[in-house]
Design goal:
Blueprint (H helix, E strand, L loop, with lengths): L1 H21 L2 H9 L14 E4 L6 H13 L8 E4 L7 H6 L5 E4 L1 H9 L11 E12 L2 E2 L6 H6 L5 E4 L5 H12 L14 E4 L2 H9 L5 E2 L2 E2 L4 H9 L4 E2 L4 H11 L2 E5 L11 E13 L4 H12 L2 H7 L21 H9 L4
Parallel strand pairs: 1-2, 6-7, 6-8
Antiparallel strand pairs: 3-12, 4-9, 4-12, 5-8, 5-10, 11-12
Amino acid sequence: MKTRITALALALTTIFMLTACSNPSAGSDQSASSSGNGEQALPKINDIELLSGSATGSWYTIGAGVADKFNDFYDGFPMTCAPGPGSIGDVPVIASGDSDIGMSYGPFLTAAVNGDAPYETSYSNLRAIAALQPTVIQPLTTLDIDTFGDFVNNKVKGTLGLYPVGNASTYIISMILNEYGIENADDISAWGASTYYADGASISDAWSDRHINIQLPMLNVPASTVTEALVARSDGKLFSLDEDVVVALEEKYGFSSYTIKTGTYEGQEEDIYTIGLPIVFFCAEDADEDIIYTFTKSLYENKEYFLGVHSSFEEFDPQTMNQGCALELHPGAEKFYEEVGLM
């Protein structure tokens, strides 16, 4: 009897061992979720594209830095930052699903959802993720004016440098001009002033060569372009927008008042009153909730790193990045903000 029990036990043990060897699922699950040293392995996801602005602009630099920290949460480098058409053009690309996350400004996102100019159709499937530091109108001139109102009301003759029609900055400047009663930039010719249209590099050259004497660049603060402009023209200076115009732009389009503090640029001896627009990261409403949650988390937790990416992150406040986004928040972003007590 004892011999039979021993034989039966041996047989059962053999069967158990064979079964365990032929079914490695438990061990393979563990190795798939852990690294060789016992640490939890990073999850794998499909490739994601972050669409930014011009390859030579600050948005591409900012986007690349943001993508870098997002990739810390995943195996490999799933997110890449691609140059894009910018604040106006990113919108239809993201809405159509041809890219995943874009960068824009509140007024354009609001216009996109409503189907207003510069868009010909409504893009109602857009959702916001976060608002970063503002891009700021930084008015420059060599004319004897203190505000843009002086230029208009005193009918000062000068040449205004502008980007080509259709450019986001030119569209925003047209909003400013409208508040001064100027329907079209070329209308300033009525009092002997003129306009000069060119790309960014050519505008800078025209300023240095004294072909223009007033411009309204829209840049992060501080901007090397502004620094170089003030060096190139010893008679150049920053000047302000008028307070009533700033208030109107805030109420109508969602701009924010902004003060360029005294001393931001060498030789700047007074505060400059102007407007800014926060950079807004946005996506389509059907974007993966976990991915958008992680993207939001990577922004919130890494200000110190981003300061090394671009100096404008000095003005990035993670505690308010859920505000001023213009759109309804994506559920993934909303979930993160609720967890950290911002909502």
